[in-house]
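We read letters as residues; the fold follows as tokens. A sample entry reads:
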Amino acid sequence: MDCEFFNDGVCGVASRMAKRDVQTNPSACKYCLTHKNPKSENKVTASLAIGSSEGEDQQILFEIYGKHLKTSAKKEKRKPSPGGPGTELIRLIKAIATKKICSRCTSLAYDMDRLGCGWVKENREDILDQMAENAKKLKMPFVRPVVSRLIGIACWKAKKKGLCGGFT
């Protein structure tokens, strides 16, 4: 990995934010390096720091760094996703729940594709929180255990198609 903050599977930036060692994976590092603010506080390092904590610590980190997680697909020029766990999740939701997919969900799905299945599994709770917030804004039902299972199925389908590793 070409980052001075990556050491033995630990992200130095996210660790500084969380005030403890935060594990990362090559897909997340790769995405961080292509971010407009690489090797610094950005949505990748914020997600890693927040996702590595629990309870009150997680809430405090979210209040401090959550601003990095709020993005819009309209803000960034993005290349099309080749597919992955986010694309598979959207397909599952369209098949069993609704055809109505908001731009926040589309943006989240893109990030899931880009960061890969490993990141999705590590950050499942954050993804579920964002999806619950999106569903609430759209006044749609949200059953957390069901959606959690759909995320697992989406990762399995992406892996079967060889689209689990993320992309840049």
Summary: The chain has two domains: 6-68, 85-160.
